[in-house]
Amino acid sequence: MAKITLNNIAHSYDGGNSYALKAMSHEWNDGGAYALLGPSGCGKTTLLNIISGLLQPSEGQLLFDDVDVSSLPTEQRNIAQVFQFPVLYDTMTVADNLAFPLRNRRGPDKLSAAEIDHRVQQAISMLGLEALAGRKARGLSADDKQKISLGRGLVRTDVNAILFDEPLTVIDPHLKWQLRTQLKQIHRQFGHTMIYVTHDQTEALTFADKVVVMLAGEVVQMGTPQELFDAPQHTFVGKFIGSPGMNVLPCELAGKEAVIDDRRIALAREYPTLNGVIELGIRPEFVRLVNSGQGLPVQIVSVEDVGRHRIVRAQLNKHRLDIIVPAHQPVPSEPGVEFDSDRINIYQNSQLVGWEHQL
Ligand code: ATP
């Protein structure tokens, strides 16, 4: 396994000034589980392909354990890849498909037949493929084929990294949950460096120790799921992560209060004078519904019961506000809302105003 360093990596497909990936420098730890998360077109696959060697970056260097691999072809980077759709040999059995990446090794890396068999059996039991081991891949369901593809990515223990590009797209929703959990367990057990591309926040948050959130060719935040929830560094991260995402409301600051349309909201601390667009971010989990006459008055637009809790969609003057209400709590007909001051984030031009700005 390897530490992966991106040193000012940038990429333009047309060689001009339009960058699909803007210059970025990051260090990803040996043995870490990383998810690249972001909307379609934000540059996730471009970055993954640069790491795998399918794409040569227009600028910067890529290092594996401090060795520059930028100009090495994919075959020499010693990585395993799992793609969105299964890549299998239809005429081979499931076991032979799994053994293929191991049998292919030459010279000092050549493995004995017993070792190959051991690893194949291990992959078969990790993924629950026992009943299919002797069957030809042709004719298996899309789910099973993709499980075998995952197995092919996981059989090699000596790789620098395992790269996954939206690997659960074709998988049935129930099985998705199971495979995500299995991948996490496999990571804990074997400690591979794993990089997992997805646009699905649930996949990213359950799989990764560190989630790399991308927007328009840039990394807007890299953090643990908890950090992304508690302190989104950019309003985009707050809105993109969470269900529903963070409420973002334009405001002004006055001493230890935020002012939204002449309504005052207590803050946990005072901020220095800020310029530009100032916004208040609060997650729906930290907005409380209170009785009429208390807090800020809101109009209820809809109430969605999602079992564990309800999601109340409300209007605070002209601003939309989502509130999470515990299942047992009644929703008043003309409610007010209160914000948990400790959970309010303040943003300047979409960027979180950090504690370094504390007076
Ligand atoms: P998706 O989830 O849809 O795959 P993504 O986040 O992986 O999106 P990329 O596929 O890396 O994003 O695309 C980033 C940008 O680069 C997009 O604007 C895309 O149109 C552009 N792009 C991707 N591949 C090429 C290519 N081969 N030639 C030109 N432009 C490309």
Helix count, DSSP H or I runs of 4 or more residues: 8
Domain count: the total is 2
The CATH architecture of the largest domain would be 3-Layer(aba) Sandwich
Overall, the morphology is: globular
- Count of individual beta strands: 23
Main beta sheet: 6 strands, mixed
Rg (C-alpha, Å): 24 Å
CATH topology grouping of the largest domain: Rossmann fold
Q: What structural category arises from helix and sheet content? A: alpha+beta
Task: Estimate percent helicity.
Answer: 10-25%
The CATH class designation of the largest domain is Alpha Beta
Name of the CATH homologous superfamily of the largest domain: P-loop containing nucleotide triphosphate hydrolases
| Terminal-residue CA separation | 44 Å
The unreliable regions are none
- Which ligands, by name, code or SMILES, are bound? adenosine-5'-triphosphate
What integer is the average pLDDT? 93
> Beta-strand percentage?
25-35%
GO molecular function: ABC-type ferric iron transporter activity; ATP binding; ATP hydrolysis activity
Keywords: ATP-binding, Cell membrane, Membrane, Nucleotide-binding, Transport
InterPro entries: AAA+_ATPase, ABC_transporter-like_ATP-bd, ABC_transpr_FbpC, ABC_transpr_MalK/UgpC-like, Mo/tungstate-bd_C_term_dom, NA-bd_OB-fold, OB_MalK-like, P-loop_NTPase
Protein name: ABC transporter domain-containing protein
